[in-house]
Amino acid sequence: MKLRIGVLSDFHCHPEGAKPWSSLLHCDALRKPANKHPIEALLQLISKSPDIRADALVLPGDFADKIDRQGFIKAWDFCLEVAGQLNCRLVAATLGNHDVDYLKKTTRHPFQIAQDLHKAFPVSTPAEQSEYWSQGFCVLESGELRVLVINSVTQYNNTDEAKRGCVTEQQLEALRAKLEKLTPARFQVALMHHHPIQHEIHGLGSDDLMKNGELLIALLSDFKFHIAVHGHKHHPRLMY
User: Is 115 exposed, middle or buried (0-12, 13-18, 19+ CB in 10 A)?
Assistant: First the structure.
């Protein structure tokens, strides 16, 4: 059996007039011409290529740019549109650092925009949504596929801590207890925003490495996870 997973990451979606531009994906862009609109171009490519399909779409975060509300809303709409075109049976997302109002510029709670964004964000099932917000992770099951969705920005209530990703010791303890109760699935994928191992290629720096990332990788290995997918670094890389 083959399993195909689509990944869309680090949209940094914002209005066209925002300066400086952090992304070429603008929430107020017109769909024509398609070569000026990244999502429309992708949708057209998928429609012309029957082999481009995915069983699941995983989204490692940074939908918005600097917590731009309209960018966040539109980026999520784009994700659902792509998932439909790919015929995905599962869509899973997690928060990036740009999706949190940790400076409380427009909200009183850093995660308010994300929590109120959409009934299916970051996952579609209410029980798993509750677990994601309360424990910093949730587990999704779809046939032979299991997706572990990890929140690596739970500490962004504190501006001093909002400089790197983190998986807390409490998250790791609760995650181990959860996985010990489950039978390993045939395909197991972990999804997070920050990188759990160092990624300094092209001068991308080292100070944003996920705290306790090594412990997380060890835990995933203990429970025989096959793939860990992250975003944040804006550089495609595959490591074994």
Answer: middle
